[in-house]
Amino acid sequence: MGENMDENNSLNADFLMTLLIRFPELAAVKYEPETRSLKLTFLLRGKIREIDFKAAFDRIQAHLETFAVLTKKRPRLFRFGRRRAQDLTIIDFERDLATMSRAELSLLTALLGNEFGGSLVREETPFLTDDDLQLQDDVIQAMLDDGRVSLADKGYFAFRGQGRVLVLGPGSENK
Q1: 12 is a domain residue
Q2: Which residues constitute the domain of residue 107?
Q3: Looking at the DSSP assignment, which residues form a beta bridge with residue 87?
Q4: Beta bridge partners of 95
């Protein structure tokens, strides 16, 4: 039983790490077991005016809703939020895992890049080749498709900092 739990923990940590490596625009990812969802955090340099954020959010939401219709995967949970911290605007996007796809994640990051351009904080990953990116895409989609990630009953949090990706999982708060 312990071996199966260790394998589950490893799969969840690998999944979150892969997301952060594959999508350098992501600042952090948190798995919410209560809602079986992912909370994706993006950072924008500077403060974005409310009217500009609302207009950008409306366009992003329209694209994502169209994507959901075309793929026939209506999200059960879809939340966008914004908060400020010093000279940053923090954008949180929460989606249920059951209907999420790698293509939607790619679309979301592309839309954020289009809307906010150079304001979107992005960690450069020059060491990744096209083959590496394709492999990560395949791993992400396979884990979303087979539901292994959604089986976890504990929260996970992964973030990037100083060129590293760190994952905190069950029990890490006691260490």
Answers
A1: yes
A2: 2-152
A3: none
A4: 38, 78
How does pLDDT run across 45-65, given as a tens digit for each residue?
988 888 999 999 999 999 999
Exposed e or buried b per residue across 42-58, where buried means at least 16 C-beta atoms within 10 angstroms of its C-beta: bbbeeebeeeebeebbe
- SS3 at position 78: strand
Residue 81 located in a structural domain: yes
User: Using CA atoms, how far apart are residues 76 and 68, in angstroms rounded to an integer?
Assistant: 11
| Number of domains into which the chain is organized | 1
Residue 166 lies in a domain: no
107-142 tens-digit pLDDT? 999 999 999 998 999 987 767 777 877 888 888 888
Express the helix, strand and coil content of the chain in percent, nearest 5 each. Answer: 50, 25, 25
H/E element, 83: strand 78-85
Residues 97 and 144 sit within 8 Å (Cβ to Cβ): yes
Instruction: With H, G, I as helix, E, B as strand and everything else as coil, classify residue 102.
Output: helix
> Two tokens at 127?
């060491």
Is residue 45 a part of any domain in this protein?
Answer: yes
Residues in the chain: 175
